[in-house]
Write a structure and sequence with these properties.
The chain is mainly β and about 120 residues long. Helices cover about 0% and strands about 60% of the residues. It has strands spanning about 1-5, 10-15, 20-25, 30-40, 45-50, 55-60, 65-70, 75-80, 90-100, 105-110, 115-120. The strands form two sheets. Strands 2, 4, 5, 6, 9, 10 and 11 form a seven-stranded mixed β-sheet that branches. Strand 9 and strand 10 form a beta hairpin. It is globular, with a radius of gyration of 14 Å. About 30% of the residues are buried.
Length: about 120
Amino acid sequence: QVQLVESGGGLVQAGGSLRLSCAASGNIFSINAMAWYRQVPGKQRELVAAITSGSTTNYVDSVKGRFTISRDNAKNTVYLQMNSLKPEDTAVYYCNAKRAVPGGGYVDYWGQGTQVTVSS
């Protein structure tokens, strides 16, 4: 069991910045990787950024150079620093944790989602 609590969303102007936070609790030692996804109504959920237990990071092309995912192991918290925000970044952002299970595959845990709105 892993619980994820997100915070930091809000309304900002284009070019502004936001920092999202995701605090994990429960069976945190079983987490293999964490990530941020976003979803716009009518569109597929999109992987924005991911970080492994070894701190390897990956980003969707559209946010490279603008977003940074990081982890604070002492606080069991993952962050998404979003700079130079664009209106197309507007979405509900979800924190995600993946836990490998016996027999193969992963179990996904999700935060409640936080709205990010970027005005033009």
